[in-house]
Amino acid sequence: MKKLFHPAMGRGQADFGWLKARHSFSFGQFYNPEKVHFGALRVLNDDFVAGGTGFNTHPHDNMEIVTIPLEGALAHKDSTGGEGIIHQHDVQIMSAGTGIYHSEKNANHDVPVKLLQIWVMPKKYNITPRYDQKTYLPDSYHNQLKTVVAPDDENALWINQDAYFVLGNLDENFDTQYTIRKEGNGVYAFLIEGKAEVNGQTLSPRDAIGIWETDFIQVKTLEKSRILLIEVPMTLEN
Question: Which terminal CB of the chain, N or C, has fewer other CB atoms within 10 Å?
Fold first, then answer.
């Protein structure tokens, strides 16, 4: 088994006034050669967007983009015709494929929105762009690890990669195990809130640990916690 620890304080930072961001991996003006990606996981941005502001229309291609609002709501519009509000407890996925333009704006003028924006490198390139979103209320993954994004689960959002996003809303002193779904994959465990141990490593809010070359990981909460597990291939085919 191999692992790496990414403390929250070691992340990159950006402050544009309307946007305050923390980067787990190299992004924008932040570059760390040891933090370019974790397998197929390329970006994990922890964003704060002020009321009445947001990301204007901009392009992407050949990337799987997952957005998870933690507080507030985000208004989405893209060139495929996809349009709507992404609320707290929703998960959104967009396959950029051959190319897509989109905007993401704070849906409210008086309160900020806090969100995780995550990019995963695709399995197949130049697919037709697509967009989808789904609601996962915390009660639906209370004291369990719930798959919310997967390539092979009809109850999850589909992703163009052998990748799995799993959420856990776990009580204090809850002990559970996550089994790796696909051989050769690793898991990047990101603690959203609370305090927990993952394979013996204590995590505080926004700390993360990447683990690979193992069949499973062990999660034990020290406080009531919310955790995101991102399982991705460690070797890219393309």
Answer: C
Cβ count near 157 (within 10 Å): 18
pTM of the model: 0.97
Sheet holding 19-23, edge to edge: 12-15, 19-23, 41-49, 113-120, 64-71, 90-95, 130-135
Report which residue type is found at 238.
N
In tens, the pLDDT along 177-217 reads 999 999 999 999 999 999 999 999 999 999 999 999 999 99
Q: Would you tell me how many other CB atoms lie within 10 Å of the CB of residue 14?
A: 15
99 and 208 in a single domain? The answer is no
Q: Which of 170, 134, 164 is nearest to 229 (CA)?
A: 164
Tens digit of each residue's pLDDT (9 = 90 or more) over 49-100: 999 999 999 999 999 999 999 999 999 999 988 888 999 999 999 999 999 9
Determine how β-strand 113-120 pairs with β-strand 130-135. unpaired
Instruction: Give the domain extent around 143.
Output: 138-233
Reading the block at residue 107, the tokens are 């849906």
CATH classification at residue 156: 2.60.120.10
Verify that 155 and 64 share a domain, yes or no.
Answer: no
